[in-house]
Write a structure and sequence with these properties.
Layout (H helix, E strand, L loop, with lengths): L2 E10 L2 E11 L4 E5 L6 H8 L7 E6 L7 E2 L5 H7 L1 E4 L11 H8 L5 H14 L1 H5 L10 H13 L5 E5 L7 H16 L3 E5 L3 H7 L2 E6 L2 E7 H5 L2 H7 L3
Parallel strand pairs: 3-8, 3-9, 6-7, 7-8
Antiparallel strand pairs: 1-2, 1-4, 4-5, 9-10
Length: 239
């Protein structure tokens, strides 16, 4: 497994956010995590990327032809160096910086001679960002900002891309475009762990999926099977 999470607990003071969470993400897959608001989905991504510390459990990174690493005690920048990039909910771009400057920040840990090629690759994936590269990022549309947030993460050359609610607040036509881009990124070799409010689209896109409820994984299976599961349909797919 590229990433294995076992018996993970996370608390905010006296409040338990995650309890005994087990998730496995295989190399080359898109893995979806669905669940209601407050289930703990964002907390799980923040634990993987080092933004919060688990109180128990392990997060193990095992890339092909590489040593296994316990992630849960590393700093966020060390986790990025391993090959894990996080696109947070709400994009969190630097609005006063240009598109190009935001992308450069994403690649700050890369060798200087690689940055131009990485920038070119990102701008091929997102042609609209090439057109907007000199604009302040705050002037972009919501969809363009989401593309920028994904592009910034790709500048770090991740093996695993963590996506937190990439469709949030976007028009349906833009959502379809974002999901097609995610599919292309995965086809090019990047593994994806996706949190998504649009459960139907997430399960249609993913290879494997988990359902998180009240801080615990209650279902895990292939995405196709969960898409047809009566419990999932009733709770998350509108019947």
């Amino acid at each position: 497994m590229l990433l294995s999470i076992s018996n993970l607990d996370v608390s905010y003071g006296p409040i338990s956010a995650l309890r005994g969470v087990n998730v496995e993400i295989a190399q080359g897959q898109i893995v979806a995590l669905i669940g209601g608001n407050g289930a703990g989905k964002t907390t799980l991504l923040r634990a993987i990327s080092g933004l919060i510390r688990p109180s128990a459990g392990r997060i193990v990174w095992s890339p092909e032809n590489g040593q296994s690493t316990n992630v849960q005690k590393l700093r966020p920048d060390e986790i990025v160096q391993l090959g894990i990039s996080h696109v947070p909910e709400g994009r969190q771009i630097f609005a006063n910086l240009t598109v190009r400057e935001n992308l450069l920040l994403g690649g700050y840990q890369q060798p200087h001679h690689d940055i131009a090629a990485d920038m070119e690759n990102v701008l091929k994936i997102f042609p609209i960002l090439h057109e907007r590269r000199s604009q302040p990022s705050g002037t972009l549309s919501g969809g363009e900002q989401q593309m920028l947030a994904i592009g910034r993460a790709l500048m770090a050359r991740p093996k695993l891309l963590l996506l937190d609610e990439p469709s949030l607040g976007l028009a349906p036509i833009i959502v379809r475009k974002i999901f097609e881009i995610i599919r292309q990124i995965n086809a090019a070799g990047t593994t994806v762990f996706l949190i998504e409010q649009n459960a139907r689209m997430a399960l249609t896109l993913a290879h494997r999926a988990y359902v998180l409820q009240n801080g615990q994984i209650i279902l895990a299976d292939s995405a196709a099977k969960l898409l047809n599961d009566p419990q999932v349909q009733s709770a998350y797919l509108g019947g």
